Structures are given as C-alpha cells and as structure tokens.
Amino acid sequence: MKSPRNILIVRFKAIGDVVLTLPAVHAVRENFPDAHITFFTVKENTPLLQGFRAVNEVISIDRAALKTPLRAVPEFFGLIRRLRAGKFSLVIDLQGYGETAWLTRLTGAGERWGTVYGRGRDWAYTQGVKRNEDLHPAEGNLQLLRACGLKIGPIQNQFYLPEDALIAAKTIFAAHKLDLARPTLFLQPFTSSPHKNWPLKNYLAVAQHWREQGVQIIFGGGPGDLAALEPARVENFPVFAGVPLLVTGGLMQLSTLVLGGDTGMLHLALAQGKRALMLVGNLAPGRPILFQRRDWVLVAPRKDHLDSIAVETVIAETGKAFNSPIGSGFC
Questions:
Q1: Domain 6-147 listed as CATH 1.20.20.10
Q2: Do the beta carbons of residue 313 and residue 298 sit within 8 Å?
Q3: Domain residues of the chain, as ranges?
Q4: Ranges of the chain with pLDDT below 50
C-alpha cells in the first residue's frame, strides 16, 4: 500500500487495554516513520497517551456527553466533523466494538483495518481480521497488523512517563517522608471487577510483613477506592488512591515492586520497566496477563478462587521479586 500520511488508531477502553496497544503503536510507527499518527480513545484515557511517544495527536470521545440528550447530537456531529477533518488515509480499529466499527467507517478513510469479533462488523473495514480469542490482546493487535501486511520487528512495550508526573510523585514521597533509596512495595489491591480482587486483609498481611522487614509500603487505587482502603490508612500505611493517573505511574516508577490483581496499573508498571507481580484466578487463553512475563504472574491453585492464593505464597514470591532484577527477558 501507498505510505499513509495520516493514520488513526482506535482503542476506547480500558486503561490496561490501551497500554497493551503500545507494541502495535510502535510497530505502526516503525512501518510508517513519517506519518502523523492520531490515537482515538475515550476522554478519561487522554492523559495516558502522553506516554506514547509514537503518537502525534489524540482525539477523545466524551461518552458521558453522548448519554445526555441535550448534548448527544452536537457532541456526535462535532466528533464526526473532527474525524473527517483528519483526512485519514488509514484507520486501524484495535477495539472492534460496534461503535468503533461505525466510527471507523464514518472517517471516510480509504484503508480501514479492524479486529472483527462480532457478526456483521466486517463491512466497516477494507481488511477485517477475525479476533483470535486464544491470543493475548497485545499479540492480537500485532496479528492484525501482520495480516494487513506490516512487518513486525523486535517488539517494543515502552511507556514514557512525562517528567512533570515523576516530579509530582517525588513531591509526594518527600511530603510523606518516603526515602527514594529504600525498597518500596506499591500495592494496587482493587481491580475493575470484585471477582478479580485478592482479599484486602491479605494485602494488609503482606504489607505488615514487609514493613517489619524495613520495606516502605504504598497503597494505590482510583478515587472510588478511598473508602475501601480505609483499613490500610488505619494501620498507618500511606494511601494515595485518587491521585492523577500519571502521578500514580510516577509512584510506581519510584517503587521497587508493584503487586496487584488483573488491573491496568500493573500493565502500566510493566511498560515503564518496573518489576511487578500479578495475582490472577486463572490462565484462560487470551487473558490479559503481564505481556511476555508469564513468570511474573501468580495463579490461584483453585481456578477462579483468588482467595486460594495463600498469604505465605505471596510473601515468598514478593521476596524473590525484591531480590531479582528485571533481567534480559524484559521487553
């Protein structure tokens, strides 16, 4: 195909899924070094794209506005005008939802590639590739690019944290008398789904163990996790739930190890080159575990029963992680 000048990459949600597009975004940039690449996502993910160096511009959709009758029509048509004004010659839909398929088609781009996992959606694309449910999402994105003719070289999975976010994280460290030179454990207990959460009491037990060993402890989470993390605050652990997304990225970058469940923040930690340990209920094909780091994933001995992972096991695995560098296998 003729080298496109303007490329649109589409992925709406969620944080982890957007982070997992990094290898594909890098691959697109490698194949089209001179193209202007725009990333189309939901409004709440816009700050995250600051760490995607291959992306030149971001277009966001305010889904809350689209659900408000008085705002929906002007919001929708304003969005369509902006998409058409981009004069995209290639659109790559890494989501494949009905709405992203429609929006991809409405861009008017001559080349439209998309992941198809719903009947009747392939009409939106000039090249549609059926979703392989057995592939890790990041590998599925790369499979789409390969099928559409792109060359995939060494896989890159790097997120570049903006300097101001790191400075803000260092300010938080200083304000709470946290020492940058000491080992630090960052805990992210909550995920988007309760069934993916290891019990908070277990995280507290791990935190208490490592505090006794001289390790600094940090609890992170979203604004909605503040009340649920009150037991951690009661036990005098620093709780930074609700700080801006990229500042949380900075706190993880300053930490030695990030521990949590199947949540986007662990994918973000990994993409920053941080050591992580993810707790999951099963290893079903296609599950978005840490990309290329199966050895950093701890699976429940009883399938889908996270509480079957013993506290002692997690303490042992975090101990190994504290004493193990990232290693040559990191990508």
A1: no
A2: yes
A3: 6-147, 163-322
A4: 327-331
